[in-house]
Amino acid sequence: MSVRLVVRTFSELCITVGALIILFVVYFLFWTGVKAADAAEGEIDTLQSQWAREPVAPAPDAASSEPAPAPYRDGKPFATMHIPRFGPGWEWPVLENTEVKTLQKGLGHYSGTARPGDSGNFAVAGHRRTYGDPFKDFPKLRPGDAVVVNDGTTWFTYRIAKKPYRTVPTDTAVVDPVPRGSGFEGAGRYLTLTTCEPEWGSSHRLIVWAHLDATRPVSDGRPPELRR
């Protein structure tokens, strides 16, 4: 085999490998985003149709004799989340569990943690990159920022307590009823958001904690934080 043939073969191989790398990057940066946007929109449409057809009953308070609400269904949406810091059009469905397939369609609720507005810790995970990049701007979150959740009957407005906190994936205490490291003391109505760190890796996690600041019946319209 001549040197010229070896060089040409090697060049063609490099071009092929380069093309495959580009296709791989396009898939993760573009195509998974398209799929996630379509899936998330479908989940929100499903929720809104469900709420219009069968209004969700508000959760009973601690002193109520009403039966507890039905458990959330795995992989199914039960609320939407809005974070004004991420832009006026930022809206994602919240689905039950944090399995891989669930997080490809929206945000995932840590099963076993509190429901929106309930006493305890309502904990939610989301992708930082790929599948729509819902938490791409996670490091921009700041104390006082609003996180608004709609469960079909109530708008729950949480306020972030501190800047994002970096920890390791095994630190499960961040989603405890009173999350460790949050600075919260005693029982309360809390929210925890988690995502991957660094931006294109998963060796660590970024966490933000918030406390329930206000509630508003859906029938009263959107809360002020979403009308600015």
TrEMBL record:
UniProt KW keywords: Hydrolase, Membrane, Transmembrane, Transmembrane helix
Record bears the keyword Endoplasmic reticulum: no
InterPro entries with a match to the protein in the record: Sortase, Sortase_Class_E, Sortase_dom-sf, Sortase_E
Protein name per Swiss-Prot or TrEMBL: Class E sortase
Transmembrane segments: 12-31
NCBIfam families: class_E_sortase, sortase_fam
Record Pfam families: Sortase
